[in-house]
Design a protein that fits this description.
Elements (H helix, E strand, L loop, with lengths): L25 H14 L6 E5 L5 E6 L16 E5 L20 H9 L4 E5 L3 E6 L9 H26 L3 H24 L2 E6 L2
Parallel strand pairs: 3-4
Antiparallel strand pairs: 1-2, 1-3, 4-5, 5-6
Helix pairs in contact: 2-3, 3-4
């Protein structure tokens, strides 16, 4: 599936006012929180497929820090995964930075017709929900919409982003986090999707 920079810091298992889960039963919320807590701080990317009742259909990893290929059935399911920081030095670099969905994540969500795509990092949970009428267009339409959203954000923050590249470990990485959040926010608005970013405790 592939994902942008992410990761976790073990900052607790609770989620404060996570509106992205309110459509689920208490049992399903508990199960989803437990699975996401388990993978937030992993150094490699994990994927989890769950049904709306909180039953785990598939869970696995390819032991890569930038991708995981979902091997279980995902149509109409909730798919969550973690975003480890790519290129971090274990034991030295912080794990609590993280980013939102990549173009590959969006492509997988639409192409597999998942009910909800989620990504977790040490500090945040991201959610993109399929509307009642289904995803707005097919894989190609959504990929193009994502690229248009990216181009709009590029124009807005280009100068700020360029100014931080000299200090990638701190400011640059933070800008990267904000950048992909803004791209996904712009994309979701254009396509009529429900997108949320929730800070965990």
């Amino acid at each position: 599936m592939g994902g942008r920079a992410g990761g976790g810091s073990g900052m607790g298992t609770g989620v404060r006012g996570d509106a992205s889960m309110r459509h689920l039963s208490a049992a399903a919320q508990k199960a989803l929180k437990a699975e996401e807590s388990d993978i937030r701080t992993k150094g490699v990317e994990y994927g989890v497929v769950m049904d709306e009742n909180g039953n785990v259909i598939w869970k696995g990893t390819d032991n890569s820090d930038h991708q995981v290929y979902i091997k279980g059935p995902a149509k109409d399911m909730i798919v969550t995964h973690n975003h480890p920081i790519q290129g971090r030095t274990p034991g030295r670099d912080r794990l609590d930075d993280g980013g939102s969905f990549s173009k590959q994540d969006i492509g997988y969500a639409v192409g597999s017709n998942v009910k909800e795509m989620r990504a977790v990092t040490g500090k945040y949970s991201f959610s993109l929900k399929r509307p009642a009428g289904g995803w707005n267009g097919g894989w190609k339409t959504n990929q193009q919409a994502f690229q248009r959203a990216k181009a709009r954000v590029d124009r807005r923050i280009k100068k700020y982003y360029e100014a931080t590249k000299k200090d990638w470990k701190t400011a640059g990485r933070r800008v990267q986090m904000t950048y992909w959040h803004l791209v996904n926010k712009e994309f979701a608005k254009a396509q009529g999707y429900t997108y949320t970013k929730t800070k965990i405790k």
